Amino acid sequence: MCMLWSWYLADDTQFYIIGAIILIIAVRHFNFAAGVLTIFMVSSWATTAYIAFSNNHMPNADDPFALFDKIYDKPWTRLGPYLVGMCLGWILFKTNCKIKMSKIFDDVILGTSCIIVCAGFSNFTFFRGSCCHYA
């Protein structure tokens, strides 16, 4: 492949077509479109998990692109993140970009951020030679 980023153009084109079809259906049959979107999302996550587990994938610093061709650049594993963005775009469109967040929501965001930071630091235990390596 002469242009290393060109794989994403094919994925993005497919996602745009799928997303447009789902949004057109959602205008008249919202529940059906939400069901199809949920099926696509769950199947994307399940496919990614299956590929990772069946190949005994363990992320590490030595070879970060170990399963690039099997996981990262395939459309069936990249569809989930695209659909999450599409859902957020739909919510912003329906609320006219005026989302009011409560104190509870702020606490959830703070808690989620703390969990993500802790999970990020715990990933250092997977790397060889890390100061946090446990026996």
Automatic annotation (TrEMBL):
<protein>
    <submittedName>
        <fullName>Uncharacterized protein</fullName>
    </submittedName>
</protein>
<feature type="transmembrane region" description="Helical">
    <location>
        <begin position="108"/>
        <end position="127"/>
    </location>
</feature>
<dbReference type="InterPro" id="IPR052728">
    <property type="entry name" value="O2_lipid_transport_reg"/>
</dbReference>
<feature type="transmembrane region" description="Helical">
    <location>
        <begin position="6"/>
        <end position="25"/>
    </location>
</feature>
<feature type="transmembrane region" description="Helical">
    <location>
        <begin position="79"/>
        <end position="96"/>
    </location>
</feature>
<keyword id="KW-0812">Transmembrane</keyword>
<keyword id="KW-1133">Transmembrane helix</keyword>
<keyword id="KW-0472">Membrane</keyword>
<feature type="transmembrane region" description="Helical">
    <location>
        <begin position="32"/>
        <end position="53"/>
    </location>
</feature>
